[in-house]
Write a structure and sequence with these properties.
The complex is a heterodimer of chains A (235) and B (386). Chain A is 31% helix and 27% strand. Chain A has a single domain (4-223), classed as 3-Layer(aba) Sandwich (Rossmann fold). In chain A, the strands form two sheets. Chain A has a six-stranded mixed sheet, sandwiched between helices. With 235 residues, chain A is an alpha/beta fold. The two termini of chain A are 22 Å apart. In chain A, helix 5 (146-158) runs parallel beside helix 6. Chain A has helices at residues 46-53, 76-86, 102-107, 117-130, 146-158, 176-191, 203-206; strands at 4-15, 18-30, 35-39, 61-66, 69-70, 87-90, 164-168, 195-199, 211-216, 219-223. Chain B is of the alpha+beta class and 386 residues long. Chain B folds into two domains: 3-49 and 250-382, no CATH class; 57-63 and 79-241, no CATH class. Chain B is 52% helix and 21% strand. Chain B has twelve helices and 14 strands. In chain B, strand 2 and strand 3 form a beta hairpin. Chains A and B meet through helix 1 and helix 2 of A and helix 1, helix 9 and helix 10 of B.
């Protein structure tokens, strides 16, 4: 069984007379340990796909199964629990909480767990060390560089050891050198077994992933940087 | 880290926001504390002044009245076994257990004298006490300072065609009119007031008293207890509380207290509205942050708890600051507004705890809608919105 299975997925936005088909009949499998890039022009449905995968956006039609759980059949509060246990989000523009320190930001997903303060600090500390930010744990986000903030965002996403990392334009606000460093980090996490789904505009980032999905007008075409030209979508 | 740490850190690192959020509650609680403190001082002062204003206890000689009837006709009444009140009874009133509650003791001897063919009531008083009791008296001339001087009621002066410095002969005793009372609308208009010893001499009742009027402070001691103690000291007397006077006094105080309560409620409601508005603004400002919380797996109840905890802290700050400011303001404003100098404004732990709890309750109540609104925010605002 695949880690993520998407069947006949559609998302249509209706506003008065206007009807926008953001995603149309998408079928997709993502295996454990894969590093998927999702590329496409603006308006192609990349963010919609990511938000649907993240349990944040109910599809108009279709089914999304994560680890054999039909996530959109869960009650709303159970869906929140699912996000906490299964997903790590890396938002565009980092989205760190400005009044929490680095370590507090990383511990944020643990605030609603049963873990003691000591356990939380230890877990967060380990991940910060891995990100090379151990010495900056007491700083506030506005005292960090863009790359450092991105690392904090990644640490926060990983602290609960989620099976899936969802990243929305992780290098969008970074210079090319820092962007490469972040991609190297993603690659090393993937080599350790972390499944990653990344939305990106950056063709250079794609090279780090194992598979690429191209979205255009709400439809998926797959491409593997290693195996060019293969199409996997039924649309 | 717990949810409360998110609330604490938000407020700790955004002190300007705390001031802004707590402002409404602080103003409300300051007003309540100021009003309560000043009202308390005024109530005590007014109550004491009202207690001094006229008698609220009457001491009369105890007597048994028999009503006689024969064949259905009422023949009349006869007083038997009438006890008398004496000068020596006056200090006994001042010696009761709750003597600090006794303000004024004004004895009187009342009897009829004949003047120029007219029967007039002469009332012997201790003028120092009588003037303290009857603060509404307005005198043309002066209050009698010696045994040879008298004060005329308004109606008596008109009837006798007398004025200040004229002379009168009371049962052979020559006296000078030192002053005349302005019309009071009471029985005093029909009386001649003279020194108690003069009246006892003129009426040939040495040492006797007709009645004693007593003014007592009732704020710290119920009047029934004072009446009981005076009755015990004077077993031969009939001691009664003048309930009508008391009732009027209490009504006046009640109106004043109700006004204060009403004003406090209005100000508190306005304070609560300010908190509500500020909380809504704060929650709307934090849309993205709340979206992140929801996206990383916070339930709606977690978001509500964060907002409520912030409201709790704001309530504590507003209540504490409001209490201290209110205390300070009432100390400064109290004497200016009330004219009461040297009034006591003291730290009241019960009031302090009460207003802090009130502030916390107001803060949380005002945050209910903002908290629910926050919990329902769309998490996709944390990501790029479509």
């Amino acid at each position: 069984m695949s880690l993520i299975e998407i069947r006949n997925l559609s998302k249509i936005y209706e506003s008065g007379e206007e009807r926008v088909v953001a995603l149309g009949d998408v079928n997709l499998n993502i295996e454990r340990g894969e590093f998927i890039s999702v590329m496409g022009p603006s308006g192609s449905g990349k963010s919609t796909l990511l938000t649907i995968l993240g349990g944040l956006n109910h599809p108009t039609e279709g089914e999304v199964m994560v680890d054999e759980i039909p996530i959109y059949q869960l009650p709303l509060e159970k869906l929140a629990d699912f996000r906490r246990e299964y997903l790590g989000f890396i938002f565009q523009s980092f989205q760190l909480i400005p009044y929490l320190t680095v370590i507090e930001n990383v511990m944020l997903p643990l605030a609603i767990t049963e873990k003691s303060n000591r356990e939380q600090v230890n877990l967060a500390g380990e991940i910060l060390e891995k990100m090379g930010l151990e010495g900056k744990r007491k700083r506030l986000p506005d005292q960090l560089s863009g790359g450092e903030q991105e690392r904090v965002a990644i640490a926060r996403a990983l602290v609960n050891s989620p099976p899936v990392l969802l990243a929305d334009e992780p290098t969008g606000n970074l210079d090319s050198k820092t962007g490469r460093e972040i991609m190297e980090l993603f690659k090393s996490l993937n080599e350790e077994g972390q499944s990653i789904v990344m939305v990106t505009h950056n063709p250079e980032s794609v090279a780090f992933s194992s598979r690429t999905l191209h979205l255009r007008d709400g439809k998926v075409a797959e491409g593997d940087p290693r195996r060019e030209g293969e199409i996997g979508s039924r649309s | 880290m717990k949810l409360r740490d998110i609330s604490i850190n938000n407020l700790r690192r955004r002190k300007g926001k705390v001031l802004f959020l707590a402002l409404g509650l602080t103003i409300g609680i300051t007003t309540v504390v100021t009003l309560i403190s000043i009202t308390r001082t005024m109530t005590e002062d007014i109550s004491n002044k009202l207690d001094e204003f006229g008698a609220n206890i009457l001491v009369l000689p105890r007597s048994n009245d028999l009503a006689l009837s024969y064949g259905g006709l009422n023949i009349g009444g006869v007083s038997v076994d009438t006890q008398t009140l004496k000068d020596s009874d006056i200090p006994k009133i001042r010696q009761i257990e709750v003597r600090e509650n006794i303000s004024t003791v004004s004895p009187k001897l009342i009897g009829v004298v004949e003047l120029e063919g007219k029967k007039i009531l002469l009332t012997g008083v201790l003028f120092q006490e009588e003037v303290r009791l009857k603060k509404w008296w307005r005198v043309h001339g002066t209050i009698p300072k010696s045994r040879d001087e008298v004060l005329l009621g308004n109606e008596v002066a008109v009837r006798l065609f007398k004025s200040t410095n004229d002379s009168l002969t009371l049962n052979g005793k020559r006296v000078r009119i030192s002053g005349m009372l302005e019309e009071t609308g009471s029985q005093d208009d029909f009386l001649i007031f003279g020194d108690l010893t003069l009246a006892q001499e003129v009426l040939k009742k040495p040492g006797a008293l007709s009645l004693i009027e007593v003014s007592a402070f009732c704020i710290s001691c119920p009047i029934e207890e004072i009446v009981r103690q005076i009755s015990k000291a004077l077993p031969h007397a009939k001691v009664t509380a003048i309930k009508q006077t008391l009732q009027t006094k209490m009504e006046a105080l009640d109106h004043f207290k109700k006004f204060s309560v009403g004003l406090s409620v209005i100000v508190l409601l306005i304070g609560g509205l300010i908190v509500f508005t500020n909380m809504m603004a704060s929650v709307n400002e934090r849309k993205r942050e709340i979206g992140i919380f929801r996206a990383i797996g916070f339930r709606k109840s977690h978001v509500i708890k964060i907002v409520f905890f912030e409201a709790l802290i704001i309530g504590l700050i507003g209540g504490g600051a409001g209490y201290l400011l209110g205390l300070g303001l009432s100390t400064v404003l109290g004497p200016i507004l009330t004219g009461i100098k040297g009034g006591r404004i003291s730290v009241d732990p019960v009031l302090a705890v009460g207003v802090v709890l009130l502030s916390v309750a107001m803060g949380i109540l005002s945050s209910i809608y903002p908290a629910i609104h926050a919990s329902k925010m769309d998490p996709t605002t944390a990501l790029r919105a479509l």
